[in-house]
Amino acid sequence: MIQAIAFYLFSAVVIASAGLVITSRNPVHSVLWLILAFFNGAGLMLLCGAEFIAMLLVIVYVGAVAVLFLFVVMMLDIDFAELRAGFVRYLPFGLALAVVLLAEIVFAVGAWNAGGVAMAARAAPAPAADAMPNIEAIGVLLYTRYLFIFEIAGLVLLVAMIGAIVLTLRPRVGARHQRISLQVQRRPQDAVRNLNPAVGEGVRL
């Protein structure tokens, strides 16, 4: 009973916040509603027993992506009147795209119920949840069967990060760079001076 109430509560908040993300006139409010949707989506994942996906929603999407969106929106000088005009201009295209996505979802659900995928899924039930926690099962798969694929994905992300840094790095004229070798060779007596000035006299630099 409590799980059913929590499910309907999280679902209602997710649907309402998702609608407010689209209809809010202020982009900052839209990002805040998006964060609320992510939190309630994490609650739904916990009810389904997918703890790993719930943590990803909170840590990655709320803690990184949504906060980054919020900072970008707050730092940009956005013309809200022009933004609303653009929304009205692209409304027919958005409605057409929504109709296409809805048709695809209906077609996918019909194919799932009519084909052999649903029967195979019903014939082969999922393993018991008490046998191994969700996070532990994902960790075992990642670091055994899919270890090399996991490492290759990390290398791809590393190359992408290096490429972004190289493309955005611009040399600045007159910039003073750190020279570690000179810092290491510097002696303490060259860096510190002990002075004993008389009363009323200042320190000459």
Task: Provide structural commentary.
With 205 residues, the chain is mainly α. The protein has helices at residues 2-23, 27-48, 51-75, 80-89, 91-114, 116-123, 134-142, 147-168, 180-185, 188-191. It has three domains: 1-79, Four Helix Bundle (Hemerythrin (Met), subunit A) (Up-down Bundle), CATH 1.20.120; 90-125; 132-168. It has ten helices and no strands. Helix 1 runs antiparallel to helix 2 (27-48) and helix 2 runs antiparallel to helix 3 (51-75). 7% of the residues are buried. The model has no long low-confidence stretch (mean pLDDT 80).
Short description:
This protein is mostly helical.
- Look at the structure and give the CATH class of the largest domain: Mainly Alpha
Q: What best-fitting shape do the alpha-carbon axes yield?
A: elongated
End-to-end gap: 77 Å
Portion in helices: over 70%
Task: Describe the main β-sheet briefly.
Answer: none
Number of H- or I-type helical stretches: 10
- Low-confidence parts: none
Any guess at the CATH architecture of the largest domain?
A: Up-down Bundle
CATH superfamily of the largest domain: NADH-ubiquinone/plastoquinone oxidoreductase chain 6, subunit NuoJ
By CATH, the topology of the largest domain is Four Helix Bundle (Hemerythrin (Met), subunit A)
Into how many domains do the coordinates divide? 3
**H/E series:** HHHHHHHHHH
As a percent range, the share of strand residues is: under 5%
- Write down the Rg: 28 Å
Structural class per helix/strand content? mainly alpha
Give the mean pLDDT.
80
